[in-house]
Amino acid sequence: MVEVYSNVRRDLLVVKKGFPVPDIGVEGKWRKSKKRVIRVSEEIRQVVQSQGYYMRKLSDLKKN
């Protein structure tokens, strides 16, 4: 299972359940999503397993 966080800039952070929020140098306070996460994509699952977290900036999505 994973926990999903967002900040005021609407960046997304996915962390393994029970692990602390990593200090990755992104401005703003991370807020835990109140919605329960049932499934994540295989890409996110692999990155969380190898790095311990997955982060995506909203600006990265808008460029595509």
Overall shape: it is globular
Largest beta sheet: strand ordering: 3-1-2-4
Rg calculated over all Cα atoms: 11 Å
Total number of helices = 2
Structural class: alpha+beta
Largest sheet: 4 strands, antiparallel
Number of domains: 1
Q: Could you tell me the number of beta strands?
A: 4
Ends apart, CA distance between termini: 28 Å
Beta-strand share of residues: 25-35%
Overview of this structure, please?
By secondary structure, this protein is of the alpha+beta class. The protein has one domain. Helix content is about 25%, strand content about 25%. The protein has 2 helices and 4 strands. The chain has helices at about 40-50, 60-64, and strands at about 1-5, 10-15, 30, 55. Strands 3-1-2-4 form a 4-stranded antiparallel β-sheet. The longest helix is centred in the C-terminal third of the chain and has 10 residues, at about 40-50. The chain is globular. The relative contact order is 0.30.
